Amino acid sequence: MAISRDFNKDPFIVIWELTRACQLKCLHCRADAQYARDPRELTFEEGKNLIDQIYEMNNPMLVFTGGDPLMREDIFDIAKYAVEKGVRVSMTPSATPNVTKEAIQKAKEVGLSRWAFSIDGPNAEVHDHFRGTAGSFDLTMERINYLHEVGLPIQINTVISRYNVEYLDEMAKMVEDLNCVLWSVFFLVPTGRGQASDMISPVEHERVLRWLYDLSKRVSFDIKTTEAMHYRRVVIQQKMREAKQQTDEINYLTALTEKGLTGSIDGLGRAPKGVNDGNGFVFISHIGDVYPSGLLPVQAGNIRERPLAEIYRESPIFKSLRDPDSFKGKCGVCEFRYVCGGSRSRAYAMTGDYLESEPFCVYIPKALRDKQVQ
């Protein structure tokens, strides 16, 4: 992924919800998944056309999600088409009986770059409660053994909530013991089945983000956060403290963003700059609706009516989300707004306005601290 990627033109990552069908009943499900497939889903031919459009947008990463992508019989035909075109494809299926040895072998054969499973607790009691399905934890562990057998890299996704925040040390050890390449840590947004009462507090968000940074220095796997954009601020602050930086903080941040080096300097090592809802990130639903994120249910268009590139580049919704100076409250004046920007999804879920401040960040921007001193 080139550092020169312009998020105003091309996303860094595209998420395609192939179906909303799923056999699980997860407490936090964004999609409010159903047992049966929707007859309005994008067809195989429409899917190929979508992949062509995605490829033309500077070939971003593509993730198949759901529901459960394996509920589509043509999933591996779709994946094969994308991989043969040169797209880097990952998949996040649910741990259900659909995940057979044959399915995993097929994923390996068609060239999937990574397989992601969700694990939300270090044991069956915690995980199965969260997933709403008894036996889910044991099934996941069994299927991970399959993945190791075929040599497919494994990513673990975990949603942080009040149900599991006290088990994070055990979770981290489990991710390491399972020889995973990436721990993708999601911070709950109350949308779909997710409830505000399930979220951890703003202070707990800060504590967990600092814990993740400390963890990242001593584990073999990479750590990525979703809907915790303030992790970038935490990483930069911690690195500056460690280096005992004498440089003015704002000048330091300006230098980072101007050079487009925040990804390589702040140790996150993936996107060349801060990906946020609608800013380097785009979500396509099972019926072709386009959103800034699967957790930000503000529709910007439909690919059956307009090209994906046109929606991403020209939609007023996307354009406003790519302008941190348009953010309200403390996010709009925060010196970290170009590398963080706060969760636009959580702002929308809690206030009804996706440009409002991130409501679960405890940081007070320098501009506001200076005003208090005056």
TrEMBL record:
Keywords carried by this UniProt record: 4Fe-4S, Iron, Iron-sulfur, Metal-binding, S-adenosyl-L-methionine
Its source organism is Bacillus salipaludis
Q: What is this protein called?
A: Radical SAM/SPASM domain-containing protein
Q: What is the lineage of its organism?
A: Bacteria, Bacillati, Bacillota, Bacilli, Bacillales
Q: Which residues cross the membrane?
A: none
Describe the location of the Radical SAM core domain by residue ranges.
Answer: 8-218
> Does the entry feature the keyword Manganese, yes or no?
no
The cofactors required by this protein are: [4Fe-4S] cluster
Look up keyword Protein biosynthesis and say if it applies.
Answer: no
What molecular function terms (GO) are annotated for this protein?
Answer: 4 iron, 4 sulfur cluster binding; catalytic activity; metal ion binding
Q: Which SMART domains match?
A: Elp3 (SM00729)
Q: Specify the domain of life of the species encoding this protein.
A: Bacteria
Do you know which InterPro entries this protein is assigned to? Aldolase_TIM, Elp3/MiaA/NifB-like_rSAM, PqqE-like, Radical_SAM_PqqE_MftC-like, rSAM, rSAM_sf
